[in-house]
Amino acid sequence: MIKLYQFPISHYCEKARWALDFKGVPYQVVNLIPGLHVPVMKRLTGRTSVPVLADGDTLIAGSDRILDYLDQAYPQPSLMPADAEQQQAVREWEAFADKDIGPHVRRYCYHTLLNHPDIVKPFFTTGGPWYGGLFLRAAFPALRIGMRKAMNINEAGAKRSLDKIVTAVALLAPLCRPEGYGLDWPEELPEPLASTTSQLAPKLAWVLRVYDTYRRNDEAEPGADLAYS
Ligand SMILES: N[C@@H](CCC(=O)N[C@@H](CS)C(=O)NCC(=O)O)C(=O)O
Fold it and tell me: Using a 6 Å cutoff on CB, does residue 8 contact ligand 1?
């Protein structure tokens, strides 16, 4: 069976999960603990990043490549439109979302969440190996320092990222906590993430509608029209 090496919290991994679910392709997730993922992924691909899809002997790294691979290996239903011009638009939109929005949403969320280990540690360990909690009890402070450094997570960085976020919409699901994402979202978020997400809620209503229509409803027709307002 196909395996998806992933972090449950990662929205790039959610993109791959969504594509697999959309295709109706059976798969198993291999949930990795941030920090402990490094040797596992290095052995597998020579790099550290997830998601990585393993289909038999074929290994595909990166959410964009995973979506392309799935469309080739499991063509129906198709993720890509048939028309070449529309395909180009999809590719441009995906590249924009992956490069210009995804990292900003991640940085803005972590800027608050890393101050709340009670919330973020379960996100990191959910569905993973039994020793994940024990590992994070010891390693979380060092992991947090490493993440802040690697992703430039600080007050100024978070502010720049928020500016980006409010001007564009893509990979926004963690800000609206839709059902179907695969995480057990907390009822209340800590500040300032709580106020920010509630201010953004009217702008993000369509993200929830997309989830409601396509992610939770198994009977929805792929490609059915959505009325954005
Ligand atoms: N462009 C990549 C981005 C993937 C990415 O940034 N993955 C992060 C998690 S959100 C990761 O694996 N970070 C840990 C690492 O690189 O070691 C994709 O689309 O798959």
Answer: no
